[in-house]
Every structure is written in structure tokens, then in C-alpha cells.
Here is the input.
Amino acid sequence: MENNTHVLKTENLKKVYKLYAEEIVALKGVDVEVKKGEFVSIMGPSGAGKTTFLNLTGCLDKHTDGNLEVLGENLGSLNEGQLRNMRLHHLGFVFQEFFLIKELTALENVQLPMSFANNKDMDWAKHILERVGLGKRISHRPKELSGGEMQRVAIARALANKPDILLADEPTGNLDTKNAQSIYDLFRQLGKEENITIIAATHNVKLAYQADRVVHLREGNVEKDEQL
Amino acid sequence: MKKYLNLAYKNLYRRKIRSILTIGGVGVAVAVLVSLLGFNSGYRKALNRDIDNMGYQILVTAKGCPYELATVALAGTGSLRYLTDDTVAKIKEDKDVVELTPMMMNASVKEDGNGFYTFWGIDLDSYTKLRPMVKIANGKHKEKITDPATGKETEKEVDGPMGRWFNPVKLEPDEVYLKNGRILTGLIVGEGQYEKSGSKELDPLTGEFTETKKAFKTTKIMLPSRLYTKTDVVGITGFVTLKDNTQIKGDVTIVDNNTIKVTSQETKQEKTYTKAQIQKIEDELSLKDGSVVIGVLLSETEDGYNVADIPLSYPNIEEIDSSLVETDPQGNPKVVDHNKSDDAIEIVLGWEAAQIAFIQVGQKLTIKVREMDKEKTKEKVVDPVSGKEAEVEKFVEKAVFNSYTFKVVGILERGGSKDDGSYFVQLEQLQRVFKKYKMLTGIGIKLKDLATLPMFTDRMYARKELGETQVISLAEVKGTILNLVQTAKILVMAVASIAIFVALIGVMNTILMSVFERTQEIGIMKAIGASKFDIFRFIWLETIIICALGGVFGTLIAVFGGKGIEKLIRVVMSRAGYVPAGEIISFTPQIIITCFIGAIVLGILSGIWPAYRAAKMRPIEAIRSGE
Here is the structure.
């Protein structure tokens, strides 16, 4: 993959959820291109389609219509195993609720995706935790960590298999202002130093505008695409 | 793999109580299975050991239910039927018989009602020939030793005198037995057929004793046994010709302590005989040997002697120490004390019997043997016509315990069979104790060649003079018992399969529950790159861990609880009949390994469905489920 080509490209991306007889259109035809190394904020009110967009991009869900290309792969044509491969090796996901495995320590949580990829590099897991500023808390369990620390563990876990794209759905939604800011600082740093593409959905205007670009979604459509 | 193991373990740990309960369920199922298999192999071994220890291959008993007889043969319980001892000689004539041994088994309830004394009356010569494995042990035994300094009691093994088998005792004088198995203890006056064995017969006409085996149809006068002074006597119609040719003939009744009366049947003339006159008869018969005449038996029924339980108040008790004579309320002699020290019956104890009684060679052992006795009671009845109250005499059966003193002359080596708990006495002695004169419960037989068994059996059944006998081959007995056990086993197997099925459902339920509870977690794992197989694997591993732990737990319960289970089986099975001696549950490594593997297979099977359910969850839906 060349450096300047886009890692994400959507054309007329549509997603329709079927709830019994009712059809809910979450994305009505989104066209977005994201270049490698870009830090993109997705903004918009609730129900605008931010999470749907991230889920589709993160290979957690399948789109209904249109084109969705991630790292040059047309996701619509991939089977489940190939989608899993994308998730495992090329994509990292960070959730608002952190979603760490409660029984496992910070280090074990980071090692979990590595073990799925048969990677036993202990030092790398430790390194990543150091990288997110948790070098001294690697053997703590989630309940022994603060919200900010848990999200850092989640970020470290998302980075464990050296993904190309880091997807974050409201990563600071459960954090106070100070912690939220430090997470965004971390994102910016990672983007700069590791050349990782970051796509983060947020409500927080102040944080959103710390990215390279802000894509505004409203009712399933791109309302505005601001290059900063 | 380590990671998955860790995760699975942590998940189980998180749901401690549920996991423990599930493991417990699997454990119980495995314990049932292990015990069952252990019982199956142990029971077979124990049965084989019991049968091999018999030494004889065939048992002849009186006719009855084969299983009951097998039970009697092996364990000595159940209601007994008897053979008469002349059967031994008759069977011995058979060309295929190498050796045979008459046996008489009898059990007596212990005084405290807690179990039985199992006595075996044996013929030492033939018994030891057939059963060389039954050996007298060296005198080592446990003794309680009190430390003089501390006063503490400790048990210690000490050497003791080497025991021996009992010395055969020739029981004198000869006795006369009746067909009903009772012994004549009194003066017999009468005519007719009678049963006798090796006894001298006195021809009152010549005054000489002869030992001919001719069936007499003449007057007999028999000597009473010193040992059998218990009344077993006599009212009679008959006649006796005394040496002076006087004949006593007619219905004999008792007048008083000193006189009997004979009423002629034809003329109704009465004639009384005083004690002195009878004494004269006794004198002429040289009864001054300590024998006691306490009754007269007279009879002329076709079946032989008719014995009535009418005590004759004519005991010649002056000749024995009156303090030894126990009398009933009517003043009749009842029981003579057999327990004069030099009269103590020699006995050999099985190893366990000796341990329980804490007894060693040379010691005396007093056992109260339960017997049925008749007691004369008076009952008040109201005459329906006159309305007056009257007293009626009645005989009521009553259990009594009679004390016998035995002298322990030997203790057997431990054999691991029922012999360990048995008491061995010379056949004749035991027959006396239990009043089963000339009676046997079985005859053990060894054939020249076991292949001739079917022919031998046919011959036995063809010989009508043997009476109602039954030939039991111990191989058949084994088969019969194993068949019964097999039936029981199928039943228990059914129960075990239900337990296993329930355990399977239980495990599946537990894991499925935990899968549902962890739907979101599973979704996350998928989101961060876990494959279907990854998920499947660690859920599956959880069930296998549960079942493996259950397997270990169950095996431990079975092995350590085996003694308890064995006790339970003993209680249950002893109601049904025969339980072999020694260990009846035996655990081999194969059984334990089989059951452990079984538990793992259980885990593998019950884990498939929940693991599949978990694996096929779609990540986004799984994640959303938690919101």
C-alpha cells in the first residue's frame, strides 16, 4: 500500500437495519476517503450514523449497499474469515465502554489479541503499555484502574497487532475532561509517530477539532467535511 | 493454549459457586460410575475367592431353592433344611467321588441381637483333606498392654502359643436317634421300628448287647446319654419284657414321682411299677455309670416311635450332683450343665472371630446359643357354658439362651473368606449343641474329574434312597449369583447413565448460561480479532476443565468413600442373601483411568453445543447485547 493512497474509501455507502417490518436507514449514501496517517474526527448528533460508519469500517457489520474499501479490500466481497483477518491484523477498535476482560490484567488484555494472532512477543505488549503511559500498571486488573487508564489499556489492546487503522467510537464519552484530553493527545502522538490512521467519533467539539479533519454526519449523510 | 487455559480457569473462578456445584454434579456421576465398576470387578474377585476357598466343587444339600442354598453354602444364612448323615456313606459309594466331607452349619443370634455366631460342625479328617488352605495360625495376636507408668492402654502384637485343631471326641455312650432327629434320652420300652446309629442294642431276653444292624421288631431298652438329660420323653403304649420274663404292657402313665402305671389295652387292667422295680431294670442294665434315666419312650405307630413331650416324673437323679440339675417349676430336670471345665467343647475360631472376641488360644469362650424351648404356661379361660374361669395348661414356644463354654484350641490364619468370621466345632459336638442329631446342612464333594459332574448329578438324582437332595456345583452357584448381580448391575447402570445424563445437561446448562452472560465479552473478543475457533476452543476448554475436575473429585469420593459404599452395599445385599467376604469393591488403575477419560469425554460432548453457540455469535450483535 502506498503512502499517499487512501486507506478508506466509501462510495454511496448505505446501511439499513431491519427491525421487524420496519426499516431503519442508518447511512443513506456516504462518500468518504481517508488517507493513510490521517486523524479524522467524525461528528454529529445521536443517530447521525457515526457508530454505524465505524462498525462497517471496522468489519464488525456488513453494509447494505454501495462500496466500502478498506486498505484496498472491498469489504463487501470478503467472507467472514477474511473479515476476521482484517479485524485481527489491520484494524484496532476502541469503545466508549472500554470493554476490557475483567478477569485479565492490563498486560493480559493486551496480549489477548496477540494470542489470537499467535504472537507471543511479551516485550511488545509491555512496550505498548509503556507507550500509552501505563508501564507501571501492567499487572493491574481493570477494576484497579481509573477510567482514563482503562481506556489507555483498551487503546494498547487495539494497537497490539500493529493495525493500520485505529477506530474509536466515543473513546472519551466516559471520561472527564482532563482524561479525555490526554487520550486525544495520545491519539495525535500515535498518529504522528506510528503513522496510524485514526478515525474517532465524538460529540466533543473541542476534541474533534484537534484532528486533521472533521467529518460531520447528519441523518446518515455527510453534512460537512472540514479539512483543518 | 496457556492463554485459553488461563482464561477458562479465570472464567470458572469468577463463577465459583456455580462451577463448584457443576463439578460436584459431574463428581457424583463419576463416583457412581467408579464405584459401580469397582464393585463389579471386586465382587467378581471376592466371589471367585470364596468359591476357590471352598476346596470342594460340589455341594449336596437338601432340596430347596438353589439361590437360597447357595446363600446357605456361601454365607450361612437363610432357613435351613437338613440331610441325615447316612447320606454321606451312600454318596461315598459313588465311583467318581474322591473325597467328601459332611458339614453342619448353624447360626445363632448374638445375645445383643447384633449379628450371628456362625458355627460350622466339621469332620476334621475329611475337612482338612479337602480344604488344606484352611490352616491354624501361629499364636501371634494383639494384646492390650497397660503402661504401668502412664496407665495408658496400648495394643501390641505379641507371640502366643501355636494353636491346633480340636481333638476328636468320641461321644459316649451310644445314642438312639429317632427319625425326627431327636434323641432318646430315656429308657425305651416298646416295640416297633426305630432309628439307631452305632448303638449297642440290648436284647432283654438274653441280656446281651449286640451290634447287629437288623431291624428289630422287638422290645428295646436303650441307654440314655449322660449329656442329654433334657427331657425328651414319653408316654407310650407298648410292652416290655423284663429279664425275669415279666411283661409290662399297655398304656403307661405316670402316677407320681415314684410310680408308673401300665394299663392293659385289652383288659383295662392296671399294674403299677415302683421306682424300685424300675431301678431293678436299671441296675440290670448297669446304669450305674452316671447315666440318668429320665424318661420312658413307648410307641407303636407305623412311622416309628411316637415321642411325646410329657415329662416323666421319674428321674433317677440321685446319681448326679443335684446342684447341676436345673429343674422347671414342675420339678423336672431341665438342663444339665455341660460347662464343667473339663467338658468344655474344643473350638477353633476364624481369624476375624478371634479378633472381635479379643481371644487367644487357650482361653475359654462362653457363648449363649439361642434355642427354642417349650414352656408350660397356664392360661385362664372362661367356660362359655358355666361362665366359670378355669386354668388350662399350654405349651408355648419360647427362645432361650443356653450357655456353652468352649475352649479355644486354635485360631485360623486369615483367609479373606467367610471362614474368618466362623466358629469351628467337631460335627457331632455341634449337632448336640443345636439338637440336630445326625443332621447335616451339606456335604462337600470332590470328584475325580469335574467333567463327570453331569453324570454324577444324574446318578445322585436317580438314587431315590438319598431322599430329597440337591446337587449344587459351585460353578453353577457362581453363575447364579453372577446372574443376579448382573441384573442388579444393569439396574444400577441405568441409574448411573441417568446420573451421567443429568451431569451432561448440568454442565451444558452451566456453560450455556455463562456463554449467554458473556455474550458481550465474546463479541469484544471477536471485534479484536478472535476467530470462531478461538471462541469455540476456550468455551470448550471450560467444560472440559469442569468435567476433568469433576472426574478427579468423583474418583476421590469413590476411592475414599469406597469403605462407606461397601458398607452400604453389604447392608443392602445381606438382606438379599449372599455377600462375599473381604473387599467387594476394588479399584484398579484401569477403572480409574477409564472413568477419568469418561469424564473428559463428557466434557467434550457437553461443551460442543455451548461452544458452537458462542462461536457463531456475530460481533456487533454480541457487543450490543450488553447495552
